[in-house]
Amino acid sequence: MRNKGTLLKELYTNISTTGAVTFSSKPLVDKMLSYADFKGAKTIVELGGGDGSITAGIIEKMDKGATLLVFEVNEYFCEEMEKTYSQSNIKIINDSAANIDKYLNGAKADLIFSSLPFSLIDKPTRQEICEKSRDYLLTEGKFIQICYSYLLKYQFKNYFKDIETHFTLKNFPPAFIMVCN
């Protein structure tokens, strides 16, 4: 990624859509990704690409033949990620995660990683994102969400039957990781 100062300015300027006071730490990203089995995963989706810190970790772990779709509503973050991740199997999508179905073309994802600020997203959109994430995830796939409130687990219970909750202090602020399937 380019200049971290410019990225942070964009983060703070658009806090209502980014929902974060800083980007995900490397220990948080590593812990999040540790709950996923990348071997054989063909289609991977990231909801809320931000500065690309989770994207970089996914690319490091995914198979060469896999495709990664990264959804991000912030145009600046998308432009920066497109400069950094120009591989043909990585698609940076400047659109809402609620439109995941339009980009999967009938396919289903093996893994969906999310750092979306669900507590800041209006209820109808939040429901649509959760429904489509569930519906476009393979039966054995995982939806893995970083969040700052344990209470989000109860929202995810409406869409996923199994939810494991993990916690890490190695981020500011400390975060929960919800592993859903």
TrEMBL record:
Where's the Methyltransferase small domain? 35-162
Lineage top rank: taxon: Bacteria
Q: Which Pfam families match?
A: MTS
GO BP terms: namely: methylation
Which UniProt key words apply to this protein?
Methyltransferase, S-adenosyl-L-methionine, Transferase
State the CDD domains in the record.
Answer: AdoMet_MTases
GO terms for molecular function, please?
methyltransferase activity
Quote the protein name from its UniProt record: Phospholipid N-methyltransferase
Query: From which organism does this entry originate?
Result: Mongoliibacter ruber
